Amino acid sequence: MKDHKSDLCINHILPIRDALDLISGKWKIPIISALCIHKRRFKELHRDVPGITAKMLSKELKDLEVNGLVKRTVYDTTPVSVEYAVTEYGLSLNPVIYALRDWGLKHRERMLHPEEKPVVA
């Protein structure tokens, strides 16, 4: 017989795991954040996300596109130009990204100044 608390725990944890599976890694959130500012071509995005390799950026963009967070638009120019933009669905991550940023700022401050009282949110 299943425990009611166990079901509640699973119903709480599974959606978190789903979200983390989608945005996990160190590159997806910085890519989405950069695209939230404005759409970019591949080289612009590569320049604006410091430390990422072109191969990794390409892989992450494909994954984000498959999951509906990023839209890839190919223009019929010579040479062909490709532009990436965050989708409306991708924009729905903004509250999560802002919450992570805010928590990260508090955590960084706490690590840099451990002698001060802990920050309570």
UniProtKB/TrEMBL annotation:
PROSITE patterns: HTH_HXLR (PS51118)
InterPro entries, per database record: HTH_HxlR, WH-like_DNA-bd_sf, WH_DNA-bd_sf
Keyword Coiled coil set for record: no
Cross-referenced Gene3D superfamilies: Winged helix-like DNA-binding domain superfamily/Winged helix DNA-binding domain
Domain of life the protein comes from: Bacteria
The protein, known as: Helix-turn-helix transcriptional regulator
Occurrences of domain HTH hxlR-type (ranges): 14-112
Annotated Pfam families: HxlR
SUPFAM superfamilies documented for this protein: Winged helix' DNA-binding domain
Keywords carried by this UniProt record: DNA-binding, Transcription, Transcription regulation
Keyword Transcription in annotation: yes
PANTHER family: TRANSCRIPTIONAL REGULATOR, TRANSCRIPTIONAL REGULATOR, MARR FAMILY
